[in-house]
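User: Predict the structure for this protein chain, please.
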Amino acid sequence: MKGKNYIYDYRDYRAFLVDALGGKNKRTGQRGALARHLGCQTAYLSQVLSGTANFSLEQAYRVNQFFAHDPQAAEYFLLLVQKDRAGIHELKDYFQSKLNEISTKRTDIKTRVVKNKSISEQDQAFYYSHWYISAVHIALSIPQLQTAAALARHFHLEDGIVRETLDFLTGNGLAVFSGSKYAIGPSHIHLPKDSKFIKQLHSNWRMQAIHSLEKRREEDLHYSVTYSLSKEDVAKIRKQILDVIEQNMEVVRPSKEEVLYCHTIDFFEVKS
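Assistant: Here is the predicted structure, written as structure tokens:
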């Protein structure tokens, strides 16, 4: 459902609804579904979206149910509707001030810089629970991927998932929000090789490597081979792989942030 659009980006409830229902002049079935949920005709819903009619507060409450808004998002949507329904400027200004309070509070949380924070074990578990969390984190170094909308399009993720991830990253100082964009924050996260989360980290990205195989993109590189060799040469190849990793990092450090790539290497003895 499109209802996970980030409602706090909107100053008009109709604009939010148009986008959340699939966009202007788009037929997605969501308008009919919302009309049925509200117990009204789709023609009436179209009148509301065009500005010739207005939702009642009871209908606005049911819209929140339809989109499964959390309490703060529900409050924000109700305030948008009440501001539009207000008959005098003073009342419109009152509701707008309430909307501003919510927006300011959320901005303050996002812009709060967490310095020298040690990421808790619980937060590490969440960070490595899904591949996209670390992907979004590192992607913030790329200028064209520093907004929630751009990240959602790039990774084909729901807006709500991206927003939840960004809130987690900013809350832990792994990202900061300034103006209208995000950036990588001052905190760092690194797993030692004996960490309990290392298995999940490797599993996440190897699953993405499998998905990459399905896409068959010419620019992607996949190589798998099994061979027998002497124990002495095992040590030589392992050293060569480590040397390549170090050389690659020397290339990456000064490199301009334009695209996001994953580099996985597996070299292990095949036995039970």
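The domain at 2-111 is CATH 1.10.260 (434 Repressor (Amino-terminal Domain)).
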